[in-house]
Design brief:
Chain lengths: 391, 427
């Protein structure tokens, strides 16, 4: 079925199709339409789940995590302060490797007036141990939520997955979305049907989260690290199976646009990709070999793939929608600097801060970034980090 | 599995003695170990024999090691018996007999050689009956905790935990927060260890999923006052408001004991803790305790009650009632459980001090069943609160004036509950 849906509604349809056992959500802008749409599906009998009307995000995360421990399939969603408020439970969820899927509709934090979009809130999740996926349009949101369940509940993974998309831009933007059938989704999720309903609570003497320390604890941490590395090979398999059933394909951990011979490589995440692709096309018309790499899997960071991708480019221009405090740049740039150290031929690395606090990322802004990058390549001195916001 | 002799609460016919005759026959003509008891003034006739107690006093007192508990039976080795009669004296049931001339005791051995209990076999009315004891043993006789619980002497919490597990039975998921009560690997039931903040919300998630799949396993917490009344209170209050179906049990030792005795909202007025110290200026906690059981009851929950370890029959009854109430809504039990280490008192007085807490009205025993409050125990003569505080050095610095202030808080709290227990008069 084809419908015109916002990003939030597309995510809600994915949840309806997956039909989790337990859902707990606390409303926060710009996630609210998602919570309301799921409540409407439930009220109309289209979604048969235990709905817990929680008093806050901390309880939302704790409740769904615990339901998952008991054997259930679960869902929650949040944004901004809500994500930070559930931080303790998020760390526990990933630390204990509990399968769960959460949507974060990305938003600013740092002030009560931060009711505007950016990628800032999910930066605190970087070190929690969650898998982080960032779709760039409404169709991809629906598809990514479906894939998130496959990934989270895969016996080789068993780890929570965060699907994060741009607040306001994507959450409230309407696009053409193809809604798959329940049969298709059931077929896609069949391989993880066995994880469904398994629990430690069936026998005596089985405990969840006993107090362990020392080497046993270290072993848990080691396993978490290894699990996240495994995601890099499991995720492409899941994408391939997804394509076989639904007929739509995606580019793995890093989505590449005209990168093969690109000398100037743009780097970004989320919905800004669409605007940058337009600029890449325009630059190509002028004979400038530009391309775009969009990081879809922010965690685990596709380190090896990124190093290979950056290797030998003349310049990398990162369009960052979050600020990495203490590093005087954005997070994507900072992490690209770490990845490029694995590359044989290191490109010129420049960063452009744009689109924070819901400011528009325009074609003009990206053209400006391209111009600054070319100026630097021509031998002129430019700053490493440039703010396009006030352009 | 062991068999158990059950005696029903029915009167035997006055002229029947078939069990006694059968017993004597089974014992090859020796004296029977079943005795007839006649209470004509009550119109009641019955028989007595050994109850085969799992926790036998006779075994404990025997100085010769002649009595041993084996496979659910108390066995008497006649060769070792010195006929001192201590077992006869200590048995509360009259289950051991004395052959004075032989200087030996003798008792029922469950007809070990005969095969089945001859007395029950020959009872024409089925008053004596031998049944398979497996289910009963699992429920009551098996220790719900593994050996090696590492708590301080006199720990009230351990008693709470054992009573709760025995009363609720094995179809349970136990929840605990970081505290002394992290016995995760030492209880014989599934246990879910939470963080301090999320006991009630974790119970919500698990119990909701159980509800969805039609599983009737009960979720029960045994959590301290910090995780209940302070940092976890928001989640608890919200779960109570939503009417989540589980039994939340708080063991209240009136401070953060596991981290080394710091004050909580349940620490009473005047009490010393490591964060409400006594010095040239400090006089212990300056405020009274938050009345959390009352606050939870006022959420309109299915069941809320207070309990303590000095009144186990009251406590166990409430646990069972709470477990029943948790099938349809939220149930809460607040148990006063002393921490002798933190309360600075003699560990052997652990149970006694909680009796004093009730007898002084410091900790009244009440329950609120679907909005109906009632006292479940009323002290005959209410004592001054100092009869409670005198047990503990955490209150040792209090002068008369301060004791009077604490007494004021105690009286106010008691009269508030009393008001709630009284019927509302028409306008």
């Amino acid at each position: 079925m084809i419908k015109v849906l916002s990003g939030n509604k597309a995510a809600a349809h994915a949840v309806r199709l997956v039909n989790p056992d337990v859902i707990a959500m606390y409303p926060i802008t710009p996630q609210t339409p998602l919570a309301e749409e799921i409540a409407a599906f439930h009220a109309d009998g289209l979604l048969d789940a235990e709905m817990i009307e929680v008093e806050g995000e901390h309880t939302a995360m704790s409740a769904v995590m615990s339901a998952s421990v008991a054997g259930g399939r679960v869902f929650t969603s949040t944004s901004s302060w809500g994500l930070e408020y559930m931080g303790e439970m998020c760390m526990l969820c990933a630390g204990m490797r509990i399968p769960a899927v959460m949507v974060d509709v990305t938003r600013e934090t740092s002030s009560i007036r931060g009711v505007c979009g950016s990628r800032q809130d999910i930066m605190s999740v970087r070190d929690y141990g969650w898998i982080q996926l960032e779709p760039a349009n409404c169709q991809e949101i629906l598809d990514t939520v479906l894939m998130a369940y496959r990934l989270s509940e895969d016996a080789r993974i068993l780890n929570p997955v965060l699907v994060a998309y741009d607040g306001f831009f994507l959450s409230h933007q309407y696009e053409r979305v193809e809604i798959p059938t329940k049969e298709q989704v059931d077929r896609f999720l069949a391989p993880v049907a066995e994880r469904h309903g398994t629990t430690f609570m069936k026998d005596k003497n089985l405990q969840f989260c006993p107090s362990i320390s020392g080497l046993e604890f270290a072993n848990y941490r080691y396993q978490s690290l290894q699990t996240l590395e495994r995601v890099k090979s499991v995720f492409p398999e899941i994408e391939k199976e997804f394509e076989e059933i639904f007929g739509r394909s995606y580019g793995g951990a890093v989505d590449k646009y005209r990168t093969d011979d690109a000398e100037i490589l743009f780097l970004t995440a989320g919905s800004a990709a669409g605007t940058i692709e337009t600029v890449v096309d325009r630059a190509r018309e002028r004979g400038i070999k530009a391309g775009l790499a969009r990081i879809k899997m922010f965690r685990p960071y596709p380190r090896q793939e990124m190093a290979a991708l950056l290797d030998g480019r003349k310049a990398v221009a990162t369009i960052d929608r979050s600020i990495c405090l203490g590093w005087n740049c954005g997070h994507l740039h900072m992490e690209a600097l770490a990845a490029v150290s694995d590359a044989a031929q290191k490109p010129l690395m420049l960063d452009f801060i744009d689109g924070i606090a819901s400011t528009d990322i325009t074609i003009d802004h990206i053209e400006k970034a391209l111009a600054i990058t070319r100026t630097a390549l021509a031998g002129h001195e430019v700053q490493e980090t440039n703010w396009l916001i006030w352009e | 599995m062991a068999k158990m002799l059950i005696k029903k609460h029915e009167s035997c016919p006055a002229d029947c003695s078939q069990c006694i005759q059968a017993c004597a026959a089974a014992r090859g003509g020796a004296d029977p170990v079943v005795e007839k008891i006649s209470l004509p003034e009550k119109g009641y006739e019955t028989v007595l024999t050994c109850n085969q107690c799992s926790d036998s006093v006779c075994v404990d007192v025997c100085p010769a090691g002649a009595l041993t508990a084996e496979d659910g039976k108390v066995m008497l080795n006649s060769d070792r018996c010195i006929g001192c009669g201590l077992c006869n004296l200590s048995c509360p049931y009259g289950g051991i007999f004395s052959a004075k001339s032989a200087h030996k005791s003798f008792k029922c051995d469950g007809c070990r050689e005969y095969g089945s209990a001859a007395c029950a076999e020959n009872c024409p009315l089925g008053i004596l009956e031998e049944t398979d004891a497996a289910a009963v043993e699992e429920q009551y006789c098996e220790d719900p905790c593994s050996p090696g619980m590492q708590f301080c002497a006199g720990c009230g919490m351990e008693l709470v935990l054992r009573m709760v597990l025995r009363s609720v039975g094995p179809d349970i998921v136990l929840f605990g927060a970081p505290s002394c009560c992290v016995p995760a690997d030492r209880v014989k039931v599934p246990m879910y260890s939470t963080l301090m903040t999320n006991v009630a919300s974790a119970m919500t998630g698990v119990s909701r999923y159980f509800h969805r799949i039609g599983r009737e396993t009960i979720c029960v917490s045994v959590v301290g006052d910090g995780g209940t009344c302070d940092i976890g209170f928001g989640a608890l209050s919200a779960a109570a408001e939503r009417g989540e179906k589980f039994l939340f049990i708080c063991y209240d030792n009136e401070a953060y004991m596991n981290t080394g005795i710091q004050r909580s909202s349940r620490t009473p007025y005047g009490s010393w803790t490591n964060t409400t110290q006594v010095g040239s200026v400090g006089r212990g906690k300056s405020r009274d305790a938050k009345d959390v059981p009352m606050l939870i009851a006022e959420h309109g929950v299915n069941y809320a009650a207070t309990a303590t370890i000095a009144y186990p029959e009251d406590f166990i009854r409430k646990v069972k009632k709470g477990a029943e109430a948790a099938k349809t809504g939220f149930a809460y039990i607040h148990v006063l459980a002393p921490c002798p280490t933190g309360w600075k008192m003699e560990p052997e007085k652990s149970v006694e001090v909680t009796r004093a807490a009730v007898e002084t009205n410091y900790f009244p025993l009440w329950e609120c069943d679907k909005g109906e409050y009632r006292f479940t125990y009323k002290p005959k003569k209410v004592k001054n609160v100092s009869c409670f505080t005198d047990y503990m050095r955490r209150f040792a610095h209090l002068d008369e004036e301060e004791i009077a202030i604490l007494q004021g808080y105690v009286d106010a709290r008691y009269s508030q509950i009393k008001r709630l227990t009284q019927p509302v008069l028409p306008d």
